[in-house]
Amino acid sequence: MRLLSLIRSPHRSTTHTPSHSFLLRHPMATTTAEPISPSNTKLGWIGTGVMGRSMCSHLLKAGYTVTIFTRTQSKADSLLSMGAHWANSPKSLASQSDVVFSIVGYPSDVRHVILDPSSGALSGLRPGGVLIDMTTSDPSLAVDIHSAASMAGCSSVDAPVSGGDRGARLAALSIFAGGDETLVNRFTPLLNHLGRVYYMGGPGKGQFCKLANQVTIASTMVGLCEGLIYAHKAGLDLTNYLNAISTGAAGSKSLDLYGNRILNRDFEAGFYVNHFVKDLGICLRECQNMGLALPGLALAQQLYLSLKAHGEGDLGTQALVLALERLSNVSLEPGNSDSLTQK
To answer: Is the model's pTM score more than 0.90?
Structure first.
């Protein structure tokens, strides 16, 4: 038995017949909805990059039927081998889904895969359906998506995440949710397959929280890399140095995740420099809108932008150490001779 009647939007075609039984209750509905489960909820997933691939795999392992779209189909091969279905466009994907997740690169990508009138997910989503965008994007775009979804009889949540590739693999992400609180609470059991949900407020507030998170990470990464360069120049053993500070006040998640990667010259992306430059650029624009001066943020953005200028945008954020090494003409790479004890 269907959980709720199909709500038709006046501008939508009425010829489409749903292929499955679940349609999300509109937030204003008064009847109690059946808990979300694999038996009554079909999912769509757009974006299978470093983060999205691992995140989507957790939903497949939880037993959900998942339809996938990504620009490069080969990047979805591992998920397709797990039983995911393929769609040729976000619109086609949404027509087969009750809930559509997206985690793509840039705000322009979000706008295209969700709001494009001819191929976007919203154009294919049935009234009562839900959009959950997990991309770090503009708060104003999250509000636009919420408004467009509401006009179409659908709902949306902005739910960007923090925790990097490791958090995605371990289903240990922090998820910053913005939107209707009742809706977020209803979807928390589903999102718990990916990490821990924190409700931050109305539409766009999840994005604002993620941007504040990025401001914090940016300055923390500068401090981590500068500390390593200072310790190296002073002739300290860097492995011993990291172990020593990790349990004190200088300890941080960034140190835990990236300290040894930096020492091992492992700059593989858990989060791309290109995407971090994008995030910090959004932060700076929002600062201008708010009349805020955050000089630490501006400095970090310039340092990361220098990596991009050197063709290092596809490295991970820990590659910040390369920009700082160049400023002082030193290198943490084993075998160099620029520390004080070697002069």
So the answer is: no
